[in-house]
Design brief:
InterPro entries: DUF2771, TAT_signal. The chain is of the alpha+beta class. The protein is built from two helices and eleven strands. It has two domains: 1-31; 38-166, no CATH class.
Length: 168
């Protein structure tokens, strides 16, 4: 029976460690960003939780998506929508964008205030008039990339969570 020298064993362990670290780094580099948690939309005693439909790294250079990540919820007129976001979102600037139909049937768009990092873990959306019908809501998490647009500074959207409203 042949015995390995201490030096041979140490070299073998070092090679194994280097190979392991290299494999881990390659997998992490090619895996792309992961979804930053789930958002919950709730209205009238019902709720829907959904993962991000689009998500990027902080610099908004590497992105992934989940086309099946869409929540559907019934939200009757004059019913507030409560949006609850995870810590991964509250640690960054975020906002809720939404669309609704007014009493005349015209589609309107709106946005919540932008929430600063470390502030609100949720937001309650109340439309301007009791007869307005919410049609969609989208949580937008902003990334670190900022550019100058025609209306001032524009922040790149890092991740989005989508609610489609069932208004039957």
């Amino acid at each position: 029976m042949r015995t390995l020298s201490r030096r041979t064993v140490l070299v073998g362990v070092a090679v194994l460690a280097v190979v392991t670290v290299t494999v881990v780094l390659i997998v992490r580099a090619t895996a792309g960003p992961s979804s930053p948690g789930d958002v919950t939309f709730a209205a009238g005693g019902a709720g829907a939780t959904v993962g991000a439909s689009q998500f990027c790294d902080v610099q908004v250079t590497e992105c992934g998506d989940d086309p099946d990540a869409v929540a559907v919820l019934r939200v009757p007129p004059n019913t507030p929508l409560t949006v609850t976001v995870p810590e991964e979102v509250t640690s960054t600037p975020w906002q809720v964008a939404f669309t609704f139909r007014d009493a005349a049937g015209a589609v309107q768009q709106g946005r919540s205030p932008v929430f600063a990092p470390g502030t609100a873990p949720g937001f309650t959306l109340v439309l301007p008039a009791p007869s307005d019908q919410l049609t969609s809501a989208e949580v937008q998490q902003y990334g670190a990339r900022i550019s100058q647009g025609p209306n001032g500074l524009e922040f790149a959207t890092r991740a989005t969570w989508v609610l489609s409203v069932d208004d039957r």
